[in-house]
Design goal:
89 residues; four-stranded mixed beta sheet
Length: 89
């Protein structure tokens, strides 16, 4: 399927919804979005699901971390550091 195919995007959004339902409320997860893999950018023409994780997940021992799937319904999943907070003045 191509990026211009609406059926492809339906599949991607359904896969994102599955990840959101399963992981978004975990304290180590700050965001789940759709985009390019961080190491490849737009040149790849391949979309991934990105799970943004807090610093504590990145620093934890691998055995103590929640694990994420490598793919959901054929859509690759990548973990991205992202310890986002509300901006305050």
């Amino acid at each position: 399927m191509s990026l211009e195919d609406s059926q492809y995007w339906d599949k991607v959004y359904r896969a994102q919804d599955k990840l959101v339902r399963q992981f978004l409320h975990h304290p180590d997860v700050s965001l789940i979005d759709i985009g390019y893999a961080p190491d490849q950018g737009a040149k790849t023409k391949s979309i991934v699901l990105r799970i943004h994780v807090r610093k504590r997940w990145m620093e934890a021992d691998e055995d103590d971390r929640i694990s994420f799937p490598k793919q959901v319904d054929g859509i690759p999943v990548v973990v991205v550091p992202g310890d986002y907070r509300l901006a305050t003045r």
